[in-house]
Amino acid sequence: MTNPSLPENAMEAGPDLSVSLAGLQLKNPVMPASGTFGYGEEYSPYMDLGRLGAVVTKGLSLRPKAGNRTPRIAETHGGMLNAIGLQNVGLEAFCQEKMPFLRQIATPVIVNFFGNSQEEYVEVARQIDQIDGVAAAELNISCPNVKHGGIVFGTDPAAAAAVVGGVREVLNKPLIVKLTPNVTDITVIARAVEDAGADAICCINTLTGMAVDIHSRRPQLANGTGGLSGPAVKPIALRMVYQVARAVKLPVIGVGGIVTAEDALEFLIAGASAVQVGTANFLDPAAMIAIIDGLDRFCRQEQIAKLADLIGTLRC
Ligand SMILES: Cc1cc2nc3c(=O)[nH]c(=O)nc-3n(C[C@H](O)[C@H](O)[C@H](O)COP(=O)(O)O)c2cc1C
User: Fold this and answer.
1) I want to staple 254 with a disulfide (CB 3.0 to 4.6 A). Which of 76, 110, 167, 241 is the partner?
2) What's the CATH code of the domain at 278?
């Protein structure tokens, strides 16, 4: 990766970590994964949120949602299972209580959202489009933990295209579509949402899994099953990002098991234009800052003036 033609003083100002994504200019490619970072403010004691490439909110719905019964989290080797069930404050409270804080931070705000029906998805998108200070919307068609909406739309290419098409009609802001790994061929869904008007693809959401309490002989999660995340899923996420990046022209956001700067670099090299960090935030609230610093260090060591030049450079 060493660039012998680089002028000697090119690295003095530090490497350029910026990336562009669906019309957004990000100061670096690192952002939280939805649902693991609250609405941003919760993490402000641990870091300067302005250092992040973007902030991504918990998934929002038209009305507040209480989520599933507890227990809804279980630890696994190298990861965790969750069946939160998309608990959130709802759009109205988000606008009144969360946006005033988010408007002050010096980084783009991406709002993750979902609906229980095609109509509701479109209505939520219509309202998000009107929110001042929201840079982009991330459409979740991939939650495995709710009975209606979510994954129902994400596993069928026609249903995925219909919901993306409907949302596209009312949303002028950049549209990121988040895909589920719980399909046979993720590239089929990726192509369908590209054709329907998505501006970027985010992959992956969690993998459906299960854990059993051997004493009660019941599932450890009240929901029965849950979504697996964390380092255990990284090789699968990386493989899917690689496949999707080759299958579509859209930029891809890689997510799944990223803990270190080296993990993030693997995703960038495999074709991701940006990365999201989820479960790692629970282990170390400042994990993303360490990842950003690690990217900077790597570029200096490898004499890479512009991190974006690494994207999709995998040699096969
Ligand atoms: C507790 C928890 C809550 C989540 N909530 C959401 C959500 O509201 N919307 C969404 O699109 N993804 C949600 N996810 C999925 C994450 O954004 C991410 O795609 C997944 O956890 C894989 O990344 P990781 O291995 O870095 O955690 C959630 C994940 C966890 C662990």
Assistant:
1) 241
2) 3.20.20.70
